Amino acid sequence: MQKPYSLQVYKFGGASVKDAAGITNVVRIVREHGAPGQVLIVVSAMGKTTNALEEIYHLAFNGQEYAPKLAPLREYHARVITELFADDSAEQQEVQAEVDQLFSQLDQQLASLRQQQLHTDHYDQYYDQTVSVGELLSTRIVARALGAHWLDCRPLLRTDHTWREGRIDWPTTEHNVREHVPALLQRGPVVTQGFLGATPNGQTTTLGREGSDYTAAIFAYCLQAQAVTIWKDVAGLLNADPKFFADTVRYPEISYQETIEMAYYGASVIHPKTIKPLALRGIPLFVKSFLNPTAEGTRIGDCRHGLLAPAFIRKDGQCLISFESKDLTFISEENLEVIFGALSQARLKINMMQNSAISFSVCTDFSPYRLEKLLDLLRSQFTIRYNANLELYNIKNYDGNSIRQLTDGRELLLEQRTRQTFQFVCRATPAPAPVA
Ligand SMILES: Nc1ncnc2c1ncn2[C@@H]1O[C@H](COP(=O)(O)OP(=O)(O)O)[C@@H](O)[C@H]1O
Ligand SMILES: N[C@@H](CC(=O)OP(=O)(O)O)C(=O)O
């Protein structure tokens, strides 16, 4: 397909903009290592800001004191601004004023939430209105440091009302992006927020934790970009998370299909929804190191390759839930329909499942609110037991050796294998050091 714009989309995550030195490095990458042509830069909240906002929001929602947690976040942003811009310069004052305004609005919102004592059904909706401020803050600072145009992505990225996991309305989003963004790009680099969208009536939504990679893919799809580069603190897409596994190997090139599966199973380096829009328009995705921007990294695209080194994917914070019929009746299609319906209503995603004659087990991400909702829906019909604080491991392209490396010494609570993937759930313990 003819690409009308020679556009690169860059995505910088929280780790790359965690402090003033990081933001200076981002500016250097865009200026010195950027490809010729236009560039759209998608930025996440600084460092662990989203986690901090989640905690602050949780306190306010539950009527608790949040101010002692909000103050350090405000100071953190102010410190970065002080270090990044010349003392008393106009740009320092302007960006500080923008950030002050966002913090004041946030404080008002939190104070009102704290008073209201809303039902937990509203938790996800107000979460989006609150936690989204992290990206508004970071992009104000990064845009100013780059001398780039700041773009509020929310009026463009239209979603439905699925709070915390807004589903993109593609035709409207594509129309909006194509109508507004090309003219801005002609004038220079544009900085916008990852992770955010908005409903038709303008309420902010978020796209799921770590969703900024997906935002980069959405813009790239709509604008038919040449490529997307996500800048990470690792050398590329590796066969395991180096924070938990020793001797990892980098994939220099890997197909969309392999990557989508790794991301789906929980390789947190790429948000799982990122790949599909890029694959649909044949846009390559580069994973590169912001610590070593000239290094090769990984190219993800429409390619063929031989057998890859086994990939080890670990997902923590898991919960194994077992349902048993109360009267020893078999787990039938009718029972499964009820269970699946309740899981969907409670917004619990199945990561692995298995059934036997009178019992059905699912492994999901642990969320106390959602689990409580599921129990409310099903406890009259089933005996339900669950274990939390578990880990789910997937070995893609496994062999006997890789299975032994990971399973030896562990008590497996659930296990399954297909031709390409070996999966198991076990209790959380320090991970062994396999690979290579
Ligand atoms: N297969 C993998 N290859 C590389 N990194 C991985 C992999 N799986 C998990 N990771 C983790 O992903 C991290 C980078 O992703 P993330 O922290 O989400 O980046 P950012 O927030 O900056 O976008 C790495 O530091 C690494 O610990
Ligand atoms: N800030 C959001 C969105 C995101 O994608 O962040 P990061 O790129 O740092 O993973 C989060 O932490 O979930």
Automatic annotation (TrEMBL):
<dbReference type="InterPro" id="IPR001048">
    <property type="entry name" value="Asp/Glu/Uridylate_kinase"/>
</dbReference>
<keyword id="KW-0067">ATP-binding</keyword>
<keyword id="KW-0028">Amino-acid biosynthesis</keyword>
<keyword id="KW-0808">Transferase</keyword>
<comment type="similarity">
    <text>Belongs to the aspartokinase family.</text>
</comment>
<dbReference type="GO" id="GO:0004072">
    <property type="term" value="F:aspartate kinase activity"/>
</dbReference>
<comment type="pathway">
    <text>Amino-acid biosynthesis; L-methionine biosynthesis via de novo pathway; L-homoserine from L-aspartate: step 1/3.</text>
</comment>
<dbReference type="InterPro" id="IPR036393">
    <property type="entry name" value="AceGlu_kinase-like_sf"/>
</dbReference>
<dbReference type="InterPro" id="IPR042199">
    <property type="entry name" value="AsparK_Bifunc_asparK/hSer_DH"/>
</dbReference>
<feature type="domain" description="Aspartate/glutamate/uridylate kinase">
    <location>
        <begin position="7"/>
        <end position="289"/>
    </location>
</feature>
<keyword id="KW-0547">Nucleotide-binding</keyword>
<comment type="pathway">
    <text>Amino-acid biosynthesis; L-lysine biosynthesis via DAP pathway; (S)-tetrahydrodipicolinate from L-aspartate: step 1/4.</text>
</comment>
<keyword id="KW-0418">Kinase</keyword>
<dbReference type="InterPro" id="IPR001341">
    <property type="entry name" value="Asp_kinase"/>
</dbReference>
<protein>
    <recommendedName>
        <fullName>Aspartokinase</fullName>
        <ecNumber>2.7.2.4</ecNumber>
    </recommendedName>
</protein>
<dbReference type="Pfam" id="PF00696">
    <property type="entry name" value="AA_kinase"/>
</dbReference>
